[in-house]
Structure formats: C-alpha cells, structure tokens
Structure prediction request, 768 residues.
Amino acid sequence: MTQTMRTTLLFALVAVLIIGTGIVQSWNSALFILNMGLVSAVMALGVNLQWGLAGLFNVGIMGFVALGGLAVVLTSTPPVTEAWAAGGLRIIGGLVLGALSIALAILTWQKAPRKWRGYAVAAIIIGGFFLFRAVFDPGVAAVEAYDAAISGNLGGLGLPVLLSWPMGGLLAAGAAWFIGKTALGLRSDYLAIATLGIAEIVIAVLKNEDWLARGVKNVIGLPRPVPYEIDLQNDPAFVERAASLGLDATTASTLWVKLQYSLLLTAVLVLILVLAQLSRNSPWGRMMRAIRDNETAARAMGKDVTKRHLQVFILGSAICGIAGAMMTTLDGALTPTTYQPLRFTFLIWVMVIVGGSGNNLGAVLGGFLIWFLWVQVEPMGQALINGITMGMGDGALKDHLQDSVQHMRLLTMGVVLLVVLRFSPRGLLPER
Amino acid sequence: MDLLNALVAFGNFVFVPAVAYGSQLALGALAVTLIYGILRFSNFAHGDTMALGTMVTIIATWGLQSVGISLGPLPTALFAIPVGIAFTAVLVLGTDRLVYRFYRKQKVAPVIMVIVSIGVMFIYNGLTRLVLGPDDQNFADGERFLISARDFKAMTGLSEGLAIRTTQVLTVVTAILVVAALFWFLNRTRTGKSMRAYSDNEDLALLSGIDPERVVRVTWIIVAALATIAGVLYGLDKTYKPFTYFQLVLPIFAAAIVGGLGSPLGAIAGGFVIAFSEVAITYAWKKVLVYALPEPLEPSGLMQLLSTDYKFAVSFVILVIVLLFRPTGLFKGKSV
Prediction:
C-alpha cells in the first residue's frame, strides 16, 4: 500500500468514526469531537515540530496551552477600570521592577569582575525581590478587593477575541524563549524536567494570581467569535430555515454554532499545516532534520545547533499556545483546575507518537484518532463493564467496577502508546 | 527578644518537617538515580510506581486492621510494607521483561526510553485509579505524636511548642536504616560492586563477566523497595492521593539532578537541599522573627517569601540554577 493511499484511508476512517458518532449518538457530540479533534491536531502539530523535526523532548505542553488560555482572558475581556485605578499601576510597576532587577543581575554577572560578582548578583536578586514585593503586594490586594465576587482582576484589553489566538502564540513563545535559553544545549532529559517544571508553575500562577485571571474563581462568559444560541433562537429567519430542514430551533442553533467553530478551527489548522509542510520541505526543514539525525555532523558543517533548537522550540510552543487559546475560546471559560498534565501534556505525546512522529499529516491524524478514543473509551468501557457485571448480584464489587470505568482511559492510552512504540515505532503514518 | 522560643518555633515549623520531607525525597531520588545509573534513562513512571506500591501496602494494612493486628503505637502499615515491596517488585520486574528489555536490547536513545516510561506511567496511574480511585486515603494509625506541643510546653515552660509526630521520627529512622543498608550493599557485597561497575563502565563490566540482566533485575528490586518505602512514609506523614505522587516526580527529579544524576550520595544531599529550600521559602517566618528580633524590628507582615502553592517553583528555580552553573550537579554525576 502506498503512503498516499494509507493516508487517505486512515483519514477516511476518522471521517467515518466522527460521522458514525453523529448517526449513532448525536450530531452534537460528533461536532464536539470534531472541534476538540481540530484543536488537538494543532497541538500535535506544534509538538511534532519540536519532536519530529528537531528531536526536542518537551513535556510542558500543558503550560503553553494554559498560557494560550490566559491570553484569551487578557485580550478579549473588557478592562476593569476601577481595579486599574485601584492598583493596576502598582502591579505593573512591581513586575517591571522585578524584570529590571533580573536583567541587572544578569548584566552584573556578565560584566562585573569574577571576584565579587557572585555576592553582587545575590544582593541584587534579594534586594530586588523585596522591592518587588513591597511595590507589588499592595497593588494586588487593592485589585483583588475590588468587587471580588464578579471581577477582582484587572480584566483584559477588550479586543476582538480572534486576536487572542495569535496573542496566545506570542505569550507561549515568550515562555518558551525563557525555558529554551536555560535548558537547551544540555542533555535531553534536562529539557524534559525543565519543561515539566515550567508547566506546573504556569498552572500555579493561573490558580493563585487572582488579579490576573481570577484564579480558581474561573473566568466565564468569554466573548465569542460566533453568534449566541439564544440570539439565533430568537431570530425568526433562523427558526424558519431550521424548520425547513426539519430541525427544532434549539438543536439547530447549537449545531450551527458548533459548525461555525469547526470552520474557524479548520481554517487555522489548514493554515498551520500548510506552513508546517512548507517549512519541513524548505532548506530550513532539511537543516533541522540533519541536526536531528546527526548533531555532531551538523555542527561540523557550521550550523548553530543551539540557536536552531531554540528557534524550533519557540515555534512549536507558540503553536501549542495558539491551540490553547482556540480551546479556551471554544469552551468560553478559563478554568485553571482543568489543566491536568496527563490530559494536556502526555495525551498530546500519545497523539504524536501514534500518528507518526516527523510526519505532519500523521500528527493531525493522531490528534483526531486519539481524541476520539479518549472520548469514546468511557462509553465503550461502560458497555463492557455492564456486560461483565450483568450476571453479578448487587454488591460492593459490582459498584466498584462500575465506578472505576471512568479511569479506563488512562490504562487504554498507556496500552495504545506501548503497543505502537513496540510494533510500529514510526507510527501509523511514518515519516518518509 | 526570646531566642529559645524562636529556636523552638523554627524547629517545629521548619526543621522537623523539612527533615522528614527531605528523607522522603532522598529515598525517591535514590531510586531515580539508580535507574539512571544502571538503565540509563530518567524514569517518569517513578511517582506512579510509588503510588502503586503504597496502594498495595494500604490494602494490606486494611487487611491487617480488619483481623485486628496492630503494632501498638506504631502504624500498622509498617507490617504491611513487605507485601507492598513484594508486589511492586513483581510488577516492575514484569514491566521490565515485557516492555523495557526489548528497547534495552536494541540500545535505543535514552529519550525513547523516557517516552516508553511515560506509557508505563499511564498504565500504573490507570491501575491505581482502577483499584483505589483517585481520592485521598487515610491509613495511618497508632500513636499520633511522640511529643505533642502541649506536653513540650508543660515540660519546658516555653510558650512555643515543639510537636514531633511519630510518622516524622519513623520517616527519618527508616530512611537512615534504608540508606545505610543500601550503601553497605553497594560498597561491600559482590552484587553491589558489580552494579557500581556496570554503572561506571558498561563495556568493562561486560568484559569482566558481569551478567547485565542480573544487575538490571537487582536494580529493579531495589527500586521497588525504595519506591514503596518512600511512598508509604510520604503517605503516612502527609496524605495518600495518587495525583500528589505523580506530582512528586518534579521535586524528586530536581533532587536527583541537583545532587548529580547517577550519584547515590548526591541524591540524598539533593533531597535535603530541595526539601529545606521548599519549606524555608514557603514558610511564614513571622512567628520566628517576632521571637528572634528586638521589639522595634518586629515584622508586621507574614514574612512569607512565596505562597505554599508555589512550592514547585522552588524546586524548579534550584534546578535551573544548578543546570546553569553546575550541570553535573553538586556531586559530579553524569553529564552525558
């Protein structure tokens, strides 16, 4: 079977699975799987850029995705002017002071004589930290005190929500620059640990810094790029058109909204996919693969390996940030507690490995397939357990088995990952 | 100014908890560092191995409790630990046979092994959740305090109390015993020496007739024991929740890297460095400072450098500093 045929067949399988869900379950859940599949595919593309093209092992995807989500709040929600007046300037001033002291410390380390630079840097960092806290803390207290039940944060810029998608990419790129500067060029496991750490820190910041995005109080009702269902239901023209298709207004409105999201997300996915394919086949992409396959030889040819790694690491993380922003827009809410590493970091890895690392279409395929599996394992497991426990009398064991169905997915994902790694290590669509 | 009370408050809120936490981290980091030295990859599944070992111990503890066996003042879980170790040893040996050995024979890049360990992590995590669920489990019993704050106050007449929990003493004593036994094993026995030889130079070790599969098997058994003990001690001292065990991977790795990957001594030092920094930076120092400083200098705020939710940031920052200035760690571990 040629690769092209294989690709076509596998994508046809995905289409059948999603359409099948629509027929067997409901079109609403089919569109839900499709939309999140599109977002997952974008994330997988980002990771594939880092891993497939450059061999960089990033396990902090969750952090970059969450930063994308934060960007939605910071870009699209209206600013809370009273909170800004109460302490906005202090907060910004504190952050600037903190950044300045870090910059000063780095400068001192580079320029000062070796003898006393250690003490000088320590003094600058410690002094800078207390100065930062002295300016920053009252500002935070003032902002969080303002109308805590509804806002208690600074709000955003009040820009159109679609702008937040590139903003999410920028935010993630910034974090990636910082992490890449420290950990790239060291051994591969160190990058893994460093990214794991930064992801946990991003989530901790989201949960605790209420002035930023309300922390665990969540931001709900984010602006949407598509119309609201209720407006559609009140629009006589829409109801009429729905009726002519034989649908009631409620179902039609939810489907129409989801469909519009699908179109938007597909546009982004196609754009990124085309760019990824172009870059992969460009001289730049060939150089990246050369570095991946033999770093020493590439270095001997005069390639700046660390710099190229930093570049591709930032690009891949930015794509994850864009995907994160898309996901938060789709949800219409930012809920920091839902960011779980197993779901947002390691599941994406399963997608890339299963799909075929190094192959962009493979990553997209993996995104759809694994996401479908992740959603559908639960009902399948439920059916299985119901079958097993049918003959059993009511009791603790039966209850326990029925309860544990929801945990089947992790097990399934682990088995899928290990089976693919063992028997088809290059994935469903291998790199050519 | 009251230095004695300041010292007691420091001991109660910083020193004792940090020593206990440091011992738990050191045990975890020792296992990670051993796997790294012998099998040459970073085992991301270690947190979930700890969770699984603890889970079996918890179930065994419940079994013992239900038939009325207890250790008096000590937690019953101590009795159940061997069961947990045996089960975990069988599990990791089975995993090695089914999963890791295939890749070892192929001599794949370490990063592939890390990805494989992520698959194993998913499966262990799923198993734990299937059997015990994702919720908190309480399995500590026996005497809660060795010295309670009230007894201490009555004894010394100080206004600050020093509470020492049984689990904290137990943690430290067990950790010392385990570490002593491990070092004796590594330095004095034939098998231990062959393990170190294999870790230092694989080819030379093979030439001198060391059976690599045997070394790997022994390593996994030791790792299973360390993981279960560390997990049970952590669960007794704090709380058992599968997700916190997964998150423990970060400070454990930080400890192993700070000490120098592959160096057992470094793992212990790293564990305490991370634990003390974490506790010291997230503790609100007001209480200690009020006693320690003369009246006009007494602080008005909490004097907490970072909120406790940022404890991961502490291990991370230490990790970054070490990576920047001393990538091989404090005790010169492997750098490649």
Observations:
- Chain B has a mean pLDDT of 87.
- Chain B has 13 helices and two strands.
